[in-house]
Amino acid sequence: MNGATASIHPRTPFPAFGAPTVAIHGPQGMASRPGADSGGHVLIVDPGNGSSSERLVYLLAEAGYVVRSARSVEQAVDRLWSHPTDLVILGAHLPGSGGTGFLEHLRAEALTRLLPVLLLTDDALAPARLKDLDDGMTHLMSTVMDPEKLLNRVQALVHLKSITAESPESESLVVTLARTVDARDPYTAGHSFRVSYYAGLLAEAIGMDETDLIAVRRGGFFHDLGKIAVPDRVLLKTDRLTPEEFDTIKTHPRVGRDLIRHLKSLAFTLDVVYHHHERYDGSGYPAGISGEAIPLVARVTTIADIYDALTSDRPYRRALSHDEALEELDLEASIGWLDGRLVEEFRAALGAAPAVRK
After folding, report:
1. Quick one: how far is CA 81 from the chain centroid?
2. Residue 224 and residue 172 in contact, taking contact as beta carbons nearer than 8 Å
């Protein structure tokens, strides 16, 4: 990827995978390595009593995190309100609707609605788990993982918590606005969720680092935020737009940028929001930049955005099939609008994962 991808490290087993766990348990289900500088406070919610949960506690404690564990949702709520928490990790086997109820509790409270949540799942790409992502999950990760990848993701999510801590009410308003954009047009319902998902697939496929991966997922959700300022008569028009109406549509990246540029909690998504309509040959908008001057996170999101638009019904045309949409992406790459290397990577990433409609 011409220097644009991160290095991929070989898979390694958990430390002491077959050996007894040596995590040190203290009050309130806490574990930490003596003398370790805390990288943050992590709450693990897992009803299981197996060794996998204990190995996770061991790994995080060894890395310098203060780790608390809870065996039930009730216990997790108690830990949450009685101790500082920067990240919640949910085990894959929470019974019934326990995980959903816990997420609803987190997102309903002003002090925890932006708390990052990582779901460890045995079926990381299952549609039911993807629904969880939209309903409050920050990230999903398979239980089949190497320690380095897990620690990188934990570090990125704890960092995300540190930059969102100052303005939960402000970001909550932006989330509401983003959902409002999707809800205005029944033909694009769920579009932002799917763009976030598809962009995340491509970002993972090219080896983006954890911080950029989160920026792609979050930016995908907010990418069309500026359309809140586009009148319905333009946004919902079924006929061809006039040049003046298209100029109105073209304002939405700037409006979206201006809505979030002063929010420290969302500053890392600005490149996605502002540049997702740039073209590789420089003929896009709003900045008219070209090639690798377009931020990689934006180039990734552009491909996801176009693919979902092509595979969605519109009043003026039917949804294209998966193969037809990929042919269209190839065509746009051939005439210089898209990064052809990323289109190839996207094709391969979709081949290894199910499409999702919502």
Report:
1. 26
2. no
Q: Which of these, 199, 186, 176, 171, lies nearest to 315 by C-alpha position?
A: 186
Residue type, 247: D
Instruction: Report the C-alpha gap between 329 and 106 in whole angstroms.
Output: 39
**277 backbone dihedrals φ, ψ, rounded to 5°:** -110, 15
- Write phi, then psi, for 185 (nearest 5 degrees): -125, 115
Residue matched to tokens 């009148």: 231
Q: Are 77 and 45 in contact (CB under 8 A)?
A: no
pTM reported for the whole predicted model: 0.58
With residue 95 as reference, give the H or E element that holds it: none
Model confidence pLDDT, tens digit, residues 319-350: 999 999 999 999 999 999 999 999 999 999 99
In tens, the pLDDT along 266-312 reads 788 999 999 999 999 999 999 999 999 999 999 999 999 999 999 98
Beta strand 117-121 with 139-142: parallel, antiparallel or unpaired?
parallel
Q: Of the residues 131, 149, 227, 358, which is catalytic?
A: 227
> CA triplet 286, 300, 246: central angle to 5 degrees?
30
Distance, CA of 282 to CA of 286 (rounded, Å): 10
The pairing of strands 30-31 and 25-26 is antiparallel
**Residue 227 designated active-site:** yes
Largest CA distance in the chain: 70
In one letter, which amino acid is 183?
Answer: A
- Cα(first)–Cα(last) distance of the chain, in Å? 31
For every residue of 196-212, DSSP letters joined together read: HHHHHHHHHHTT--HHH
Q: By the 8 A CB rule, do 157 and 87 touch?
A: yes
